[in-house]
Automatic annotation (TrEMBL):
Subcellular compartments: Membrane
Gene Ontology CC: one annotated term: plasma membrane
Name of protein: Late embryogenesis abundant protein LEA-2 subgroup domain-containing protein
Keywords, comma-separated and alphabetical: Membrane, Transmembrane, Transmembrane helix
PANTHER family assigned to the protein according to its UniProt record, in alphabetical order: OS01G0864632 PROTEIN, OS05G0367900 PROTEIN
Gene Ontology BP terms: defense response to other organism
Location, primary (coarse class): membrane
Membrane-spanning segments: 29-52
Length: 212
């Protein structure tokens, strides 16, 4: 004898609170995954920066000689400073993984009493890792200084035979990390304070990197 089958009942609907909890749980998982990925990327970037972080270029004056330094103050002419300064600069790249390009050629400028009196280009355009190069600088000429120089202070320096001269090194640098080279350049500014006697070669003088 056949019996009538009972109608199939649909499964009970999930409570709204349970659906909301499931959605919140999925949202939390996505948020945590996003935070984890950001943390991983940040940690990796920090590690790369610590490994490849460029160290400051080191500059020193190995030797410098002031062969001539005279101020002409004749009443009939504009005060002029004649100079003859030769220097050998030691430029060091201390980085083990970073090479350096000097885009705008390095140049050395002499200053006396804050007045510029000469400029010379330094023959250095690229430095490999852990390398020191010697760059000669020759500043020779006559500079019209007008009333910018204190003649009495020059006379006192001339009497003591010691001239306080600042040698500034300036340029624009970029870095090379392996096969990658930075597109953004930075300015290099270095100050070398010298106390020079006429016709007497100076010793080694460390310079101060002001901007890098």
């Amino acid at each position: 004898m056949a019996t009538a089958s009972s109608p199939t009942c649909p499964p009970p609907a999930l409570p709204r609170t349970l659906l909301l909890r499931r959605r919140l749980s999925l949202f939390r998982i996505l948020v945590r995954a996003f935070i984890g990925v950001c943390f991983l990327i940040g940690a990796l970037a920090l590690l790369i920066w610590l490994i490849y972080r460029p160290r400051t270029i080191q500059v020193a004056v190995a030797t410098a000689t002031l062969s001539g330094f005279d101020l002409s103050t004749a009443a009939s002419t504009t005060p002029a400073l004649s100079y003859n300064l030769t220097a050998a600069l030691a430029v060091t790249n201390p980085n083990r993984r970073v090479s350096i390009y000097y885009d705008d050629q390095l140049r050395a400028e002499g200053l006396y009493q804050g007045v510029r009196f000469g400029r010379a280009a330094l023959p250095l355009s690229f430095q490999g890792t852990r390398r020191t190069d010697t760059a000669p600088a020759l500043l020779v000429g006559i500079s019209l200084v007008g009333l910018n120089l204190n003649a009495d202070a020059f006379g006192e320096d001339n009497r003591t035979e010691v001239f306080p001269v600042d040698l500034w090194v300036e340029g624009v640098v970029r870095y090379k990390f392996g096969e990658l080279t930075t597109t953004t350049a930075t300015t290099l500014t270095v100050k070398c304070h010298l106390a020079l006697k006429l016709l007497v070669a100076s010793g080694w003088v460390e310079c101060i990197v002001i901007d890098f």
